[in-house]
Amino acid sequence: MPRGRYSLHDPHDHTPLGEEHFHCAPGPTGWRYVSQITTPSGDHTGSVDLTLDDLGRPIRLELHTGGWQVRGAALEGVTWVRSDPTGSEAVEGNVPAHAFTGRSPAFLVATSRLLRLTPHSGATRVRLVAFTDPVLAPFTVDQSWSLVNSEAHTTDNGPLRVDEYQVTALDTGERHTVHIAGDVVLAAPGMELEDLQTPPSAFS
To answer: Tell me: the pLDDT tens digits for 58-96?
Structure first.
């Protein structure tokens, strides 16, 4: 069960945004990721709980930040309920999309698991519902993913395969690179893996 810590920062000016302390593991249903998010000063600011099925679809998502809450799953596309800080009002949403995304590294692992790309599969388009901090406002994004390189690196625990993805935002054309090993993001815009206590899990 990988357990560790990501640092989060603004991808444009690198302003520190906090840290995400996580653990994740494959399980009977697919894969689960749980994390607690803190501010740069160490105050608790939110959490992520994401479970995927064997095909990489989100069967359970729960986000908390700033008093706001989102619960969602893959249902007729993706469906979610967003609650306000007082809990007095809840709004349901539904979009014909493939999955969810957001600031957490969990969503990059989830998208790569959903697409299951190979170096020869070319670019694949995916529609995602993103939730933005600090109020978890939903909006739909279209991205193109391609696996541009996959290399095995020698480690003390045996070979570790690192996949390099190129991700393109189809509305702006902006491109960035994501490096993933198993179920851990090694590097991506806005996040860095700072500590990993156990090796990444390998998906079958």
So the answer is: 999 999 998 899 999 999 999 999 998 777 789 999 999
Neighbours of 14 (CB within 10 A): 9
Q: What is the pLDDT of residue 27?
A: 80
Average model confidence (pLDDT) for the chain? 93
| Alpha carbon separation from 139 to 64, 101, 175 (Å, rounded) | 17, 10, 19
HSE value, Cβ hemisphere, 13 Å, CA-based, for 144: 12
Six-digit token pair at 175? Answer: 């491109």
